């Protein structure tokens, strides 16, 4: 038997329940969880029941642990390996539960060996931000990231990019990936002041406070030649509150706006082309199934760093329900729980 944290109904409560230990299918691996990383979507799913087809439900979409068993078709992992992965989402199917359990069986392609140079906590914090960032850049805006094997290289480099929400897990990954692919690309971003240095270190050329009254004018002034930016990647639905943010787009640029789907609609004026970004879309696109192994290789080779500091907020499945709200107030960090 193994324990899982079941969400019994929309809004809670949670209950720790013993269930039979899952047997991985031929293409799956069974992970004994050691770390569960939190995402805002976990709290949203708890509160609103989004994407939950039946109750009780096991939430959680990323984590890390030790491989306990592998299916006959999985060759890149062995029992005993420490590994991290994208561990479930309603959008990916519901044949396995989410990350909020002691043992989780997931498709092998969503899991890769932990890089030797980072901790298990750091490894658990990486997958969702990375995949969402790639979804925004490559799938949403057709901006190639040539160092990621297997992905489409159609499309072209932007002239400049504004990343709204640079200190979010997604935004910090977007900045790092764009900088890696395009060394001289102007990357402008927004965050609270405490994350400005971090975002500059990740590769942003200009960072400003999104709560400033002059944010639109400041970004425009900082864009190349003061003409405005070519494209916007909105990682946090910032455009829902800052409704004039598209004024920073260069009228002669490509005027594209990639909006990570958060549940909060972003109104976009005519003449700007908006694309909604879903991480789960990456599973079905060319090269999407190579993303987690690519991420781990990049980290191990020192070519991609853990974008945000990681904070442990609790220990044990029983504590999880009490600390889940921490995710609603994160600022420039990832929060995780150990098991
Ligand atoms: N559709 C998908 O497939 C998908 C995938 C992943 C995430 N998401 C959603 O995307 C959103 C981001 O997720 P995440 O995990 O990357 O975020 P996160 O790390 O939880 O984001 C927290 C950060 O957002 C920043 N922020 C909040 N409002 C902002 C604003 N108006 N302007 C600039 N920065 C702002 C905060 O910055 P400061 O602390 O600096 O103020 C904080 O550091 C969430 O709503 C999540 O549910 C969707």
TrEMBL record:
It comes from the Eukaryota. GO terms for molecular function: oxidoreductase activity, acting on NAD(P)H. CDD domains: enoyl_reductase_like (cd08249). Residues 11-337 form the Enoyl reductase (ER) domain. Keywords: Oxidoreductase. Belongs to the zinc-containing alcohol dehydrogenase family. This is Enoyl reductase (ER) domain-containing protein.
């Amino acid at each position: 038997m193994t324990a899982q944290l079941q969400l019994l109904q929309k809004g809670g409560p949670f209950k720790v329940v013993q269930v039979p230990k899952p047997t991985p299918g031929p293409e799956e691996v069974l992970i004994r969880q050691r770390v569960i990383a939190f995402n805002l979507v976990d709290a949203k799913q708890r509160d609103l029941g989004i994407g939950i087809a039946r109750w009780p439900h096991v939430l959680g979409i990323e984590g890390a642990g030790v491989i306990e068993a592998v299916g006959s078709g999985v060759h890149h992992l062995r029992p005993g390996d420490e590994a991290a992965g994208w561990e479930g989402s309603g959008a990916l199917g519901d044949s396995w539960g989410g990350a909020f359990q002691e043992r989780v069986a997931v498709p092998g392609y969503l899991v890769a060996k932990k890089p030797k140079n980072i901790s298990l906590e750091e490894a658990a914090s990486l997958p969702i931000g990375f995949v969402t960032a790639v979804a925004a850049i490559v799938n949403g805006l057709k901006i190639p990231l040539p160092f990621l094997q297997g992905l489409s290289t159609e499309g072209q480099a932007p002239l400049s990019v504004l990343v709204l929400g640079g200190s979010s897990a997604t935004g910090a990954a977007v900045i790092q990936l764009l900088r890696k692919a395009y060394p001289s690309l102007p990357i402008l971003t927004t965050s609270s002041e405490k994350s400005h240095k971090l975002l500059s270190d990740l590769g942003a050329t200009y960072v400003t406070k999104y709560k400033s009254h002059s944010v639109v004018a400041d970004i425009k002034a900082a864009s190349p030649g003061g003409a405005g930016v070519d494209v916007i990647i909105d990682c946090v639905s910032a455009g829902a509150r800052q409704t004039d943010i598209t004024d920073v787009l260069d009228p002669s640029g490509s005027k594209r706006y990639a909006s990570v789907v958060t549940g909060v609609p972003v109104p976009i004026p005519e003449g700007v082309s908006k694309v909604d970004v879903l991480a789960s879309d990456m599973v079905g696109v060319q090269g999407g199934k190579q993303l987690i192994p690519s991420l781990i290789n990049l980290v191990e080779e020192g070519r991609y760093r853990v974008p945000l500091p990681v904070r442990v907020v609790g220990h044990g499945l029983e504590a999880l329900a009490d600390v889940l709200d921490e995710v609603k107030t994160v600022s420039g960090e990832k929060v995780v729980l150990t098991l």
